[in-house]
């Protein structure tokens, strides 16, 4: 059996889809299943059992002998939430509980960290673990992810295999329920579909032209491919970046979306809201050498190919993966 937390969410459900395609069907899906919109992500998937998030500790105590692997994808990911109590409970304390269960029961663990831990990138985007305690995240979500990374690295006892993955800007199918926290690709598609044009933020820095702010956008199919690789690899524990290693501009993303929709490009620029302007990232790019050094050699989707697959095969037909 394979545990997947955050199973009904965007990335968790895509991971289950990929596991099913590889004939891993004894999936223990863990989540808060009280949100009907999220549960649509699990329709048609092969799942052995659904376990409520609050019941997982007791479930593991009773069933640990059958568990082969644990993917801890679930978290509160809202970067606009400032109630630190929520992050302390769901992103830190819950992760510590799961970490300790994986030690007690000798279960390998892959968990989701975040590139939000890098803040404005003052120290770069290198997954050198020595630098992790020095990072300055910009919001409570990033702080909670960095806090757990620091805690994990400091532990004398660790799962016999573990990896933390710093997800960069992920986009792809099954994010319909995320509303304002969905990817820029998702919002671009909907905006173009309804208005025929796309609005992007202006640059408020002289060294970047409007729309030339850059992010490392990673297609969710690449992300879950790395997760599967680590499940099969099971050595070289540690914390890894998970992006493509190539920053691309929002203009590139917008143009790719217009092309995938078969429409002429029409991009306009609006002021970045003042309340986020001083915390706005103008550049992110994952250093991917560490993951490549342990043997991951599958090419990543280009932005154009990823956006085209997402738009053509999921957004236009309104399909789930």
TrEMBL record:
SUPFAM superfamilies: NAD(P)-binding Rossmann-fold domains. InterPro entries: Epimerase_deHydtase (IPR001509), Heptose_epim (IPR011912), NAD(P)-bd_dom_sf (IPR036291). The keyword NADP applies. Substrate binds at residues 169, 180, 187, 201-204, 215, 280. Pathway: Nucleotide-sugar biosynthesis; ADP-L-glycero-beta-D-manno-heptose biosynthesis; ADP-L-glycero-beta-D-manno-heptose from D-glycero-beta-D-manno-heptose 7-phosphate: step 4/4. Its cofactor is NADP(+). Its EC number is 5.1.3.20. It comes from the Bacteria. It catalyses: ADP-D-glycero-beta-D-manno-heptose = ADP-L-glycero-beta-D-manno-heptose. The active site is at 141 (proton acceptor), 178 (proton acceptor). GO terms for molecular function: ADP-glyceromanno-heptose 6-epimerase activity. Binds 1 NADP(+) per subunit. HAMAP family: Heptose_epimerase (MF_01601). Catalyzes the interconversion between ADP-D-glycero-beta-D-manno-heptose and ADP-L-glycero-beta-D-manno-heptose via an epimerization at carbon 6 of the heptose. Belongs to the NAD(P)-dependent epimerase/dehydratase family. HldD subfamily. Homopentamer. This is ADP-L-glycero-D-manno-heptose-6-epimerase.
């Amino acid at each position: 059996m394979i545990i997947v937390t955050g199973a009904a969410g965007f990335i968790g459900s895509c991971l289950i889809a990929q596991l099913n395609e590889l004939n891993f069907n004894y999936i223990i899906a863990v989540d808060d299943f009280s949100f009907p919109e999220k549960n649509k992500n699990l329709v048609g998937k092969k799942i052995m059992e659904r376990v409520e998030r609050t019941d997982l500790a007791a479930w593991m105590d009773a069933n640990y002998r059958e568990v082969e692997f644990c993917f801890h994808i679930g978290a509160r990911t809202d970067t606009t939430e400032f109630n630190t109590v929520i992050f302390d409970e769901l992103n830190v304390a819950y992760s510590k509980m799961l970490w300790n269960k994986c030690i007690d029961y000798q279960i390998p663990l892959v968990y989701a960290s975040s590139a939000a831990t890098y803040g404005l990138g003052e120290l770069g985007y290198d997954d050198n673990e020595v630098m992790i305690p020095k990072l300055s995240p910009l919001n409570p979500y990033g702080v909670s992810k960095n806090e757990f990374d620091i805690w994990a690295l400091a532990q004398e006892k660790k799962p016999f295999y573990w990896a933390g993955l710093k997800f960069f800007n992920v986009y792809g199918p099954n994010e319909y329920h995320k509303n304002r926290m969905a990817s820029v690709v998702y919002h671009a598609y909907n905006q173009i579909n309804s208005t025929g044009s796309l609005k992007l933020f202006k640059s408020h820095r002289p060294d970047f032209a409007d729309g030339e702010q850059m992010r490392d956008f990673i297609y969710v199919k690449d992300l879950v491919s790395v997760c599967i690789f680590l499940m099969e690899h099971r050595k070289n524990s540690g914390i890894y970046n998970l992006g493509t290693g190539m920053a691309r501009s929002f203009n590139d993303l917008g143009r790719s979306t217009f092309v995938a929709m078969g429409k002429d490009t029409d991009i306009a620029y609006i002021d970045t809201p003042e309340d986020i302007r001083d915390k706005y990232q103008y550049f992110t790019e994952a250093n991917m050498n560490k993951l490549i050094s342990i043997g991951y050699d599958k090419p990543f989707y280009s932005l154009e190919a990823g956006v085209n697959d997402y738009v053509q095969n999921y957004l236009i037909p309104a399909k789930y993966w």
